Amino acid sequence: MKKRSVIIPVLGLLFILSSCTKQLMQDPTTEKEAGNFLSNETEVEEYVNAVYANLQFNGLYGLFMPAIAEIPSDNTYDEVPANDDGIYGQLDQFTLIASNGIIASTWQDSYKAIQKANVVLNRIENISYNVATTKEARKGEMKFIRALLYFNLVRLYGDVPLALKETTDPNVYFGQGRTPSADVYTQIIKDLTEAIDELPVSSAQSGKVIKTAAQALLGKVYLTLKDYTNAKIQLTAVVNSGRHRLMTNTTDVFSIANENNAEIIFAVQFASGLNGNTEGSTMFQQFSPSGTQSGAKGHNLPTKSLYNLYTATDKRKGSYIDVTAAGIPYCKKLSQPTTVITDGGSDVVILRYADVLLMLAETENELNNTVAAIPYIDSVRVRAGLPGTTALTQDDLRSAIALERRLELIGEGQRWFDLVRTGTAVSVMNKWFSDNGILTTIDNHNLLMPVPQGQIDTDPSIKQNKDYN
Asked: What is the DSSP string of 133-149?
């Protein structure tokens, strides 16, 4: 899975969700059309790889998803808001407009991948596989990816169009508008529940979705919905699987030499130095302080206030986060490319075991099992060289868990979703702005991103979120 597969063409949502009518009328300019493809196992496998490859697109985990889920928070900021037409600065300053390129790319690339997954799920039942369990695994993989993408979409935009079938006619989706978020969540849960039964417990191929990935993601979905009982069931299953553990040293978690280690549950794969340096990501360039590397952009940098939360004995200080000679914090979870700056080889971690343990701590605490929650947070703290938590009450432990998630998951695109999920985004961010002398305030309408203007222009039944122009 390290090497990006050839992208197989897709009809339907690739065009349905394009930003202009002219694009809807274009013929595919690719070598193979879906209608004449997917007639045997080899072709399905090629198409499955294309779905994974879509996760590497800039609108997803090639660049924008980690940024869109963290820059609006108190964890990271945009060093030079004017860079790249201000698209990152708008996230940082809560001045988003519906034509923002990050917003548009995240929406479009999500639906392109969803459509590809739909194609596989629509065709695979009629395809003979040499090994039946491989066919079941592919179904589970596609359902996991579709669920992951809809989970991102519903958290970012609220109600979104729910497309579950392959289509070659864009017109079938026009006029349907946005599906209520409750219905989207129902489908997410359905996909992940089925995927858990279909996925294998392990895979010989790095980067493939396995059972614990679906369980961990479903646990996060239930946690987001405040269904703590079901969240505990899924997250506990990951722990009891024995498949994962914390790395002994924090320096080993994100090392390129140690990728796909036992702590990593699911990550989007990148590799440097392949195919003319085209298989890496640009995130190291984009998320490095300007002036420190040739072409560095200074986007999505850790805030100084976050850096100051790490104590001197915290092993993550220096391995997860550090400061330049000028005192500017930067995230060390992305390794510097050895080829060119735009060819980063670091995988992008979506789910890992430390996150599962912290979610379990939160789940137990919200179920009034505060004593049972403490060992989960302490395991993460002890690995970081810290003593166990001193929190004893439910409220104190809530704060301790929130802090630990900031320190442990910096740069992984979790903080903004955590703030929204816990209902603290408005109060935390307004206090942060005030404490840092920033003349910005937000309210509940800022908890969702604007729907891309191109989608509304293409299909007027898709309405804009409140208070966005």
From this structure: HHHHHHHHHHHHHHHHH
The tokens of 117 are what? 């997954």
Q: What CATH class has 1-179+423-469?
A: mainly alpha
Coil vs helix vs strand at 460: coil
Residue 188 half-sphere exposure, CB side, CA atoms within 13 Å?
26
DSSP notation for 356-414: HHHHHHHHHHHTT-HHHHHHHHHHHHHHTT-PPP---SHHHHHHHHHHHHHHHHTTSS-
Q: Which residue type does 9 have?
A: P
Question: Rounded to whole angstroms, how far apart are CA atoms 374 and 404?
Answer: 12
Helices then strands, each counted (H, E), the chain: 18, 6
Contact 342, 285 (CB under 8 A): yes
d(CA 316, CA 219): 26
Nearest to 359 by CA among 367, 154, 68: 367
Phi first, then psi: what are they for 348, rounded to 5°? -105, 110
Q: Of all helices (H) and strands (E), which one includes residue 415?
A: helix 415-421
Do residues 345 and 272 lie in contact, with contact meaning Cβ atoms separated by under 8 Å? Answer: yes
Start and end residues for every CATH 1.25.40.390 domain found in the chain? 1-179+423-469
Report whether 212 contacts 202 (CB < 8 A): no
pLDDT in tens, the chain (469 residues): 333 333 333 323 333 333 332 222 223 333 455 566 789 999 999 999 999 999 999 999 999 999 999 999 999 999 988 889 999 999 999 999 999 999 999 999 999 999 999 999 999 999 999 999 999 999 999 999 999 999 999 999 999 999 999 887 767 778 889 999 999 999 999 999 999 999 999 999 999 999 999 999 999 999 999 999 999 999 999 999 999 999 999 999 999 999 999 999 999 999 999 988 889 999 999 999 999 988 899 999 999 999 999 999 999 999 999 999 999 999 999 999 999 999 999 999 999 999 999 999 999 999 999 999 999 999 999 999 999 999 999 999 999 999 999 999 999 999 999 999 999 999 999 999 999 999 999 999 999 999 999 999 999 999 999 989 7
In angstroms, the first-to-last Cα distance of the chain is 41
d(CA 143, CA 136): 11
Q: Where are the alpha helices (DSSP H) in 26-100?
A: 41-54, 64-68, 87-93
